[in-house]
Design a protein that fits this description.
- 29% of the residues lie in helices and 33% in strands.
- It is an alpha+beta fold.
- This is GNAT family N-acetyltransferase.
- Its EC number is 2.3.1.-.
């Protein structure tokens, strides 16, 4: 299966894939769909790839470069000052027929290397719904850490996750293991801890 950078000519197939994935979900809260205009902006920035199997687009993953003055910039949530060096890990879709093959994480690694090679960015940020276990595990596999749990997007609980492209996080002290559903603890204490890894149903937190 090949990965390729997507262009405007791929937009109809990309929108069709998004619709197929959305309709297949039992819990549609886990997927924040994008508009055609938003896809065009992401495509223009150049950080969107697709997985092609037998000539068909079966998966896609992207990153998005926010403007420094963007409202509710994620850098403000984690105390990053240089917003010019921040990129967001954006949406990913996997066709139901191709789930369970590790495509999401493989595409994530490919995109991270694209961003590293670009050279403009130091930090990748994203938000994840606490109940979305596959997405959480994907982010941890890629090296992301939970920097904060808060309310975003009109009152929805979200982890704000961070990957430093050049300086991996070094943990210290003893781990505090918190069940992934214990968002009350995360909302109250999460700003003082870093969520480092996901083992079974527990996230290991370390003091900052």
């Amino acid at each position: 299966m090949d990965f390729k950078t997507l262009h405007l000519g791929d937009l109809p197939e990309l929108l069709s894939l998004q619709n197929m994935v959305y309709e297949s979900l039992e819990d549609k809260e886990v997927l924040q769909t994008l508009t055609e205009r938003e896809f065009k902006e992401i495509i223009a920035q150049g950080f969107i790839i697709g997985a092609v199997d037998d000539g068909h687009l079966v998966a896609s993953r992207s990153m998005y470069v926010p403007t420094p003055d963007e409202e509710e910039h994620l850098a403000d949530e984690v105390g990053l000052k240089d917003k010019e060096k921040v990129i967001y890990s954006e949406i990913s879709f996997i066709a139901p027929s191709h789930r369970g093959r590790g495509l999401q994480t493989s595409m994530g690694r490919h995109l991270i290397e694209m961003v590293r090679s670009d050279g403009r960015f130091h930090d990748v940020l994203t938000t994840v719904m606490p109940e979305n276990v596959p997405s959480l595990k994907d982010k941890f596999r890629l090296g992301f850490k939970i920097r904060k749990t808060t309310y975003k997007y009109n009152g929805k609980k979200r982890h704000v996750m961070h990957l430093h492209l050049w300086e991996p996080y070094v943990r210290s002290g003893e781990a505090t293991r918190i069940h992934y559903t214990d968002t009350d603890w995360m909302l109250e204490h999460g700003a003082d801890y870093v969520g480092n890894d996901f083992d079974g149903e527990y996230i290991s937190y370390y003091r900052k």
